[in-house]
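Subject: two folds for Thursday's group meeting

Dear M.,

Sorry for the delay on this. The cluster queue was jammed most of the week, so I only got both jobs back this morning. I'm pasting them in the order they finished. Each block is the input sequence followed by the predicted structure tokens. Could you check whether the formatting survives your parser before we put anything on slides? The first protein is the one we discussed after the seminar.
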Amino acid sequence: MKFNNPYKPYSIYNLNENSKVIIVCDHASKIIPKKYKNLGLSQKNIKRHIGWDIGALKLAKKIAKNTNSTLIYSGYSRLLIDCNRSLKSKGAFIKKSEDTIIPGNINISKNEKILRAKKYYFPYHDQINNILERKLKKKIIPIIVSIHSFTPTYLNKPRPWHIGLLQRRDKRLTSLFANEIKKKTNIVLGINQPYKLNLKGDFTIPFFAETNGLPNVLIEIRQDLLVHNNKINYWCNLISLILKKYYDHNSLKYCLKFSNKIKTYYKKENNL
């Protein structure tokens, strides 16, 4: 007898082993396994921005299809464990998101943290690493594009940006995106807005892109601009056009040299 096993810590969409572009979506899902009883939250709260990045997966899939690129995305809610945080960071097993207490994370034990990491965190990261390694073995310099979305207001403070481009030291791809987006006078662009890309608050881009010296950009789209298909299509077309235009740009054909400080930092921060 076959039993349906819904366990899926990651999914891959449109696998293309020869494409330079790898799209990642860390907060794609609002799913929480039944045994966790929604971490003590109502379904209404789970569906809010605190549970996932609303609209991000739909956008990421459309971009992957438009550019014939590989997309890998997480399978569970960021409230269970945040795949874009180091395990010792406050955000990994978040106790309060915006103004909402997360009861199921208040007294979480070390053993439970380790269990969640093994089941819902490392499989996703391992698969990103596998995809990267296969491309690098083929002498392909991957371009990593991380897709996120942000709430229009946070703690009652409005956010004016339509799109944010997050960067650290490697500004190659971000600069190309910014130059193109600035041509659109109707778009309010934020650089490192509404968040700053840093080691304490992020994981995927620093760990996978920076430690390998790979071109990267983290894109944040405001969630009210991703609620209808026509709006999602607008952002998909814009991002896809930029990726296609600069796919073979000379500045993206090489790896930058970075120290081992980032890997050393995360090795310590991921040791529960």
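Second protein, same layout:
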Amino acid sequence: MELAIWLLALIASGLLAVPTFMYAAECLLGSLPGAVSPTSKHAPRLPLVVLVPAHDEEQGIAAALQNIVAQLRSGDRLLVVADNCSDQTAMVARAAGAEVIERHDPSKRGKGYALDFGLAHLARDPRPVVVIVDADCRLLPGALDALSRAVSATGRPAQSSYLMVAGSNPARRPAVAEFAFLVKNLVRPRGLARAGFPCQMTGSGMAIPWAAIGSIELAHGHLVEDMKLGLDLAGAGYPPLFCEEAGVRSDFPETVEGRDSQRRRWEHGHLGMLAASFKRLLSRRTLGDPNRLAMTLDVLVPPLTLLAAAVAAVIAVGAVVAGLGFGLAPLSVAAASGILLLIGTGAAWVAHGRQVMPARSLLKIPGYMLGKVWIYPRALIGRSEQNWIRTDRTRS
């Protein structure tokens, strides 16, 4: 009995050490000084199409499209897919100068279905590069040029530096959430790039060579279709690269309801990918392909709050096992994971996070973590979010 308890505790702490080590390595590499050097400065800027999936985005889509149009060049296209909209999204998008197609199929809701519908339409007159931009995002200057050149230089998909930032009310700034998003979408992809590995697709500012479009399946309602897309592209021989010089930004929802809804979708979707990725990790194809292996290990890193909670749990279990005299090995492995988690997160905060999350905001971390804990039991019992629901961005 003692041996079984010791062994189970050791296995649990050992399994958790793998994603914790991956997380810490990405954060440490991503926190080194300087940006990842662009490899596409002198590559030709290929014609592109910006594909914008939109669901009930009447209020903000005009500004988003004006931002995109300002970066288009001769030969480029701008296509909006108004997907299952109940408002005037299509009309507003046309008035803003976009080509618009409308899709109505309430039985198949999801960003993936909208993208698949848009790509089928584009097949009649394609461009060498497809750039997917969400309807609530804005491109930083030069983003489209940088993405097009990255694809041109490598023949691979490219993911922009896509970050969410505080809105117009600094008093309600979600500092901890903003830092967590920065770690996930900037620090860790930068770390992977520095190690020579591909990165995940993160949802907006995704550039895909048209040659790769036929190798992926988008017609699904998966909540983290971006993560699935990146893995599918890597599996088809098109591992995505991180294009840090292309910036895309979006504002956090300003209402508690909006932030909670957004958080549920992301967390549930990511948890749904963990089981599938663990199976993929054990496949011979993944183990024999360094790019697929790196991306799979990256997906196996849980959301930061869940990772921290899991590390704390295995440390507690290891302490109990050690206190009962069963051995120190489980506690030692768990404590090493805790140290790696702190070092990686601390390095990311020192290098990138002090502006978005000042030292005084560190006191908010326990409350932020407690506020997220309730998400996970619902997802684990199968009651995860399933529909593409527009994030509530109403100002409170």
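Two things I noticed about the second structure. Residues 40 and 154 are 8 Å apart (CA to CA). The beta strands are 48-54, 77-83, 99-103, 129-132, 137-139, 158-165, 206-209, 241-251.

Cheers,
T.
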